[in-house]
């Protein structure tokens, strides 16, 4: 479930496991149903229960999960917002990650921060890759682009610049958290300008949709997940896809989930080296 961002549809879960495995996960409590056809990690319900116990509100990543959005990292403890003057004993505080904040009525819905307030808090407080993952998922799920832009434009105070950066780069075309985190790393590489889910056509029958593409440098970044490429037919299909891209002059880099999520500096170093080599080669070819 972590590779799926903590939330997934029934169709996705059945495709990568089985109906029997999904039913067993629901019976055992490994997954919970959050709405029709959508399932999540059990901390979604735990967050709601804790928020009710302390008269607080589910916030940040826990709220993103409650809204059905995918995340980079599922929090170990529910994230709860309580008023600044609220007093809780040590045992209760140990059950959750607290944010001391006075929320207005328009910032909450039920026991959770609203979609807009959740995006604002995540953009201000979370690391860029985590916030971008949530913003991408929110846009993909139908949150209005203009509303996210307005949140960023009107932001003032601590974290406002971070929120504006997230909003500027959020893209609903991103397919999943894996791809969003890879794009967040790519955005820190000088000279690299990637966009998600680009259709590429070329010679030898090349027609593919690639995860991340820099059109100028002709670099393709692929977020390779074993869950989606676990049989011989998929292996052959992907081998042909990458061979055709290379034959058409594209540089193809394939990254594993573990490296993208847990070794960002290594991924960045590979991207930096590739951009430098590609630009150097282009300059040599341009010489008379």
Automatic annotation (TrEMBL):
Pfam families according to UniProt: DUF559
Domain DUF559, first and last residues per copy: 211-269
SUPFAM superfamilies, alphabetized: Restriction endonuclease-like (SSF52980)
Protein's recorded name: DUF559 domain-containing protein
